[in-house]
Amino acid sequence: MAKFVAVTACPTGIAHTFMAQEALLQAGKKLGHDVRVETQGALGAEDALTEAEIREADAVIVAADKQVDLDRFQGKRLLQTSVSAAIKEPEKLLEDALRAPTFDPDGSPGALDEIQAAKQARNQGTPAVYRHLMNGVSHMLPLVIAGGIFIALSTAIDINGQSSLAQAFDNIGGGSAFKLFVPVLAAFIAQSIADRAAFAAGLIGGWIGTQGTMYHAGPNASAGYLGGIIAGFVAGYVTLALKKWIRVPRSLEGIKTVLILPVLSVGIVGLLMIYVLGHPVAALMGALSSGLMHIGASASLGLGALLGLMMAFDMGGPFNKVAYFFAVGLLATKTPEAEMIMAAVMGAGMVPPLAMAISAFAAPRKYSPEERDAAKAAVILGACFITEGAIPFATRDPLRVIPSIMVGSAVTGALSMLFHVTNPAPHGGIFVFPLIGHWYLFVVAILVGAGVGAAMVTALKREIQVQSA
């Protein structure tokens, strides 16, 4: 019997993190190994690993799609991989971890290269760029959700925004949270690339991107979330380059981290955003917003269907996140078109877990006992707009499940646009239904899409053959 310690962490810290934890624990029981898993979810680190547990472990597994501190695992066999790999092949991860190279952050470049090569070989579907982006997203998401709901509450209280409470809610959401989420996104992207020395440059670069007058793009222009992403990556890689180029005596390393690198990187990134990057990115965002304001009815249906396909394709992965943050980024414009897009994205994201739950309840012989149990949780997850609730089903039977839920989500996205459903809140599922325009038609769109997805997957799946004793 071997002893393992592991850390699981996904960008949102809601579903993938705990699915990966459960998969590793179950694999450990099956293989007779002792496995301890620390989760770094939405509430921070839970079931934190102790120094004694790390010291006694034979190997360490870090299944994360965002930045995780690795220094405490120095001297241990360390396997880095993605959360999805831990969900799909936990038993193989345990075996591979026992052959993983020893982690030494201060060791020879060759040893570090071996760790990185092993990670890249296993994690081909999760490139470093995506991991850095998701580190920013994970820290930005609470601001987006809280800010969007307060903006929606402000509108619900007084659509004209004249009352004192409505103005207060709008200031909390639109005037504070929504103005901060782009700088926070940029800061944590930069930190993921070059550690704390890049944080200030990312934060300031992201803030400049939201201030159109700084780069002569007009008082209402903003580089938006796209500018924040660019600022974060520029800040991270500029700081990383400076760390390699600037050499100081070991006694001055502290000054280098808190003085030299931040001052130089902030200056370089700030000037790049003001004179080079800010204006063209703001122009692109402006053109995108203007184009969406003039979408015709047929184009709206196509856009809704496309966003629905993306939301269901990887259930919380890169395509899902692109569609989601495309919608969230437009919410700040407060246009009906932006709220229609947000409604289509939320409805489409609720469909996959609901479709799989309906299918499992309707055709129990086609699902294992574990999947039937997961269907009960999928109802709650789907209702709360947590698309990852469909992952246990897609993992077991991707060729039948994924196309089915994609069709269902596309139907919901298109119907939501057709019904002109509006949604001013970026998250919340059924909890924000009172804020949704034409909510009853929204329910119809979701149920029709879930029904189509459930019917398709039920027709495609075969009954499970029960083996007699």
Description of the structure:
The model is unreliable at 108-115 and 117-125 (pLDDT under 50). This protein has a five-stranded mixed sheet. By secondary structure, it is mainly alpha-helical. A hairpin with a 2-residue loop joins strand 2 and strand 3. The protein has helices spanning 16-31, 51-56, 83-88, 90-97, 109-122, 128-157, 164-194, 199-210, 224-245, 253-293, 297-313, 318-331, 336-362, 369-383, 391-396, 398-418, 439-460, and strands at residues 3-9, 34-41, 44-46, 59-64, 78-81. Helix 11 (297-313) packs across helix 13. It starts with a strand and ends in a 9-residue tail after the last helix.
Overall SS class: mainly alpha
Order of helices and strands: EHEEHEEHHHHHHHHHHHHHHH
Percent helix among the residues?
55-70%
Number of helices: 17
Main pleated-sheet profile: 5 strands, mixed
